[in-house]
Design a protein that fits this description.
The chain has ten helices and no strands. It has helices at residues 2-5, 9-17, 21-43, 46-62, 73-115, 119-131, 135-145, 151-158, 162-181, 185-192. α3 packs across α5 (73-115), α7 crosses α9 and α9 (162-181) packs antiparallel against α10.
């Protein structure tokens, strides 16, 4: 591994293009810190910077064969980092704009509009969220909440441990509660009483 530290960037790129994992490790070790500083200065968030770097280095490994061997590695990485930061900012802006418009609508709509929502629509929304659960988790959750089976009965029915049943129900609740909070507390309370 020490020999890779002596390689030039161009030599490392050539090795990387051939799938050399040690060359990738050397590039990562060589450029992680400066890239982190570069990204952190733009995002001012440790977690976001780490996510961008994870994405950038993963793409470097996965798309190594596409890199032009004449490309200056540091320039390639700085450009990649900058583009990923811009994409990250744009995605968050779109998400924040959407959340802002939903919040504005909710405020403008007032309680009358929210009260006018049909119970059937709320039930369908709840069902849609439950349907999005992973298959086994959904099955356990539905046996618990819709069929009113005990954890022991579910465990026997599915041939799994009670601990697994308990964990699946807890995980389902953790996923569903924030999503259902916006639908209406009445429906959510009915689902979670058990």
């Amino acid at each position: 591994m020490a020999e890779y530290a002596e390689y030039t960037d161009r030599e490392l790129v050539a090795q990387l293009k051939s799938g050399d994992q040690a060359a990738f490790t050397e590039i990562y070790d060589r450029y992680w810190s400066p890239m982190y500083i570069h990204v952190y200065k733009m995002l001012r968030s440790r977690d976001d910077a780490m996510d961008v770097l994870q994405d950038m280095f993963s793409a470097l490994w996965l798309k190594a064969a596409d890199i032009n061997p004449e490309t200056k590695l540091s320039g390639h990485l700085y450009l990649s980092a900058r583009n990923r930061v811009f994409n990250f900012i744009q995605q968050n802006k779109v998400k924040n704009d959407y959340l802002g418009s939903v919040a504005a609508y909710m405020t403008e709509a007032g309680t009358e509009t929210m009260d006018a929502l049909d119970q059937r629509d709320m039930a369908e929304a709840v069902e849609a969220e439950i349907a999005n659960l992973p298959p086994r988790m959904r099955e356990v959750f539905e046996l618990s909440r819709k069929h009113n089976l005990t954890h022991k009965e579910i465990a026997e029915h599915l041939n799994i441990s009670e601990q697994t049943v308990r964990k699946q129900v807890q995980n389902a609740l953790r996923i569903l509660k924030p999503k259902l909070h916006a639908i209406g507390a009445g429906i959510a309370i009915l689902i979670f009483i058990h």
